Amino acid sequence: MWSPALFLALSTVVLPTSAAIVKDGSTCIVTPITNTPAAVAHRSIGTVHPAERDLIPKTDLDDSESELWTPGALGHYPRAEPGRSSSSSAVARRVSRHLGPEESPLSPRQNRPDDTPQILQAFSQCGKDGTIVFREGTYNIRQVMDTTDLRNVSIEIHGTFVWSADNLSYWRQKSFSVTYAGRQTAWRIGGRDITMRGFGKALFNGNGQTWIDLAKGQGNLDGRPISLTIWHGTNVFIDGITWRMAQFWHTFVAYSQNVTMTNLDMSTFSTSGQSSVNTDGTNTWNSRDITIANWTVKCGDDCIAVKGNSSNVHVSNVTCYESGAMTVGSIGSNSRQPDYVENVVFENITAIHSSNAAWIKTYPGTGYVRNITFRNIRFEDVNQPIYVTSCIYSYQNCDSSRLAISDVRWENITGTSRYNVAAGIHCSSAAPCDGFHFSGIDIKPKNGGNAKVLCSNIKNQASSGLQCTGSCPGSHPQQLSGNV
Ligand SMILES: *[C@@H]1O[C@H](CO)[C@@H](O)[C@H](O)[C@H]1NC(C)=O
Ligand SMILES: *[C@@H]1O[C@H](CO)[C@@H](O)[C@H](O)[C@H]1NC(C)=O
Ligand SMILES: *[C@@H]1O[C@H](CO)[C@@H](O)[C@H](O)[C@H]1NC(C)=O
Ligand SMILES: *[C@@H]1O[C@H](CO)[C@@H](O)[C@H](O)[C@H]1NC(C)=O
Ligand SMILES: *[C@@H]1O[C@H](CO)[C@@H](O)[C@H](O)[C@H]1NC(C)=O
Ligand SMILES: *[C@@H]1O[C@H](CO)[C@@H](O)[C@H](O)[C@H]1NC(C)=O
Ligand SMILES: *[C@@H]1O[C@H](CO)[C@@H](O)[C@H](O)[C@H]1NC(C)=O
Ligand SMILES: *[C@@H]1O[C@H](CO)[C@@H](O)[C@H](O)[C@H]1NC(C)=O
Ligand SMILES: *[C@@H]1O[C@H](CO)[C@@H](O)[C@H](O)[C@H]1NC(C)=O
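Above: the input record for the complex with 2-acetamido-2-deoxy-beta-D-glucopyranose. Below: its predicted structure, written as tokens.
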């Protein structure tokens, strides 16, 4: 296991205060504290009941796997079996139960190992012109993380990060504000020239069911933290990470530019009676030049939501389950503060059993939404595939909104609607929608018959390419509960 050659190699480099980090030049290599040589040796002398030994996470200090933590090494695709995350955390709990306070090599809180200090230490030691490698195993994260001063760093994650859920009041009090709508986050990353790769092996487990059960269907429970926020980041690349049971939104991009997020897999849903509302895949806000591609998202709210002051956003090849699929909004909630969204493309999108597919939601506010393309959107069993509203949620003052929506294309939009409505579009009469173009729209109710297309206040409606079958009142809801 603990090969002499490897031991020699490691013993030649500086071992900082946390024994689990090895720093070699500008590279920090991090091992979960429950996998450190001391902890492993301790377990191997009989702390763990023999019957449970096979459940202990592999130490991976083993020669055969040493390439896994070579900086830049590619991990294995396909992805780790997601079920492993909960079993790994169960193992971590089981292991810690066996380590009594007086005998444990883990410190400071023996019964609740916390990898946060060493993770933050790795960021402070190697977060500028460096590489940080998280080796395989389970990292227990019991504290908020603010790593917003990064520069030219490569973060390589081969393990599972599990956010604690035994003290939700800690997270509710300490999570960082992200300004938007008073929301908070457990981890902010920011700075310049940042790559974070998970190789399809990194798994982020936010213990979301605990948060879902605490929130009891309340949309914005104060302090319920977003899993990962890109905060004041420039030139950020995130790839190959799997989320299971995020605390709240999986990701948020704020005050950032040139952010690429590819090959992400997210799944957060409730197994109790409570709804998983607000477990969005991502939201962008006050950010530009964003590329999102190759995502699979199962969540209880919007899949990809482009919010106020976002521009140049390209979203492609995303499959969404049970979600709000592709949306611009919500925006315009503060009537004194304008929100602008422009130059957005959503293409090659699949939505399965979702609330909406290609839609725009604004409050009766100010600002604009312009130059938006929804292209090649395919779906099955979507409540109301195309939807536009100027008064989301309240369905009040819809015709006083001055938030102009213009130059929007829906091209090649095909699939089945849950009820007999393909589109519900209500624009404000004070700022009618302009430059709407529809082509290749083929939406059929899943139970047969013809789908209605309801429209109000679209300029040049006759030449828009949409065959409206009736008007759409401001009160027309985002989600229907039956045929209309
Ligand atoms: C980025 O950091 C690496 C070390 O990880 C270094 O070799 C390289 O020169 C740095 N690039 C710049 C532009 O400073
Ligand atoms: C939970 O977190 C709060 C807020 O940080 C702290 O005051 C309290 O001591 C923690 N409780 C436990 C049991 O750790
Ligand atoms: C944008 O970020 C990527 C990393 O994702 C980087 O390679 C590229 O050079 C950046 N583009 C600009 C214009 O800086
Ligand atoms: C999307 O996934 C496919 C298949 O794995 C891969 O070939 C392609 O490079 C990915 N695209 C991006 C932008 O990562
Ligand atoms: C789309 O993304 C999925 C992963 O979500 C990937 O398996 C697939 O190969 C990608 N397709 C293309 C055409 O890139
Ligand atoms: C959006 O940008 C405009 C113009 O820069 C600014 O006035 C407004 O406060 C921003 N809105 C938000 C919600 O940040
Ligand atoms: C509209 O958005 C697309 C995609 O972002 C961009 O290429 C194009 O230049 C924009 N058009 C205008 C008129 O800004
Ligand atoms: C979207 O799909 C079309 C048709 O399959 C393909 O030609 C195009 O390259 C795809 N676009 C992106 C950005 O993957
Ligand atoms: C329409 O979109 C589907 C995917 O939903 C794609 O397979 C097809 O190639 C697209 N058709 C055209 C004409 O681009």
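Notes for the reader.
Residues 26, 129-131, 152 surround 2-acetamido-2-deoxy-beta-D-glucopyranose (ligand 1) (CB under 6 Å).
The radius of gyration is 24 Å.
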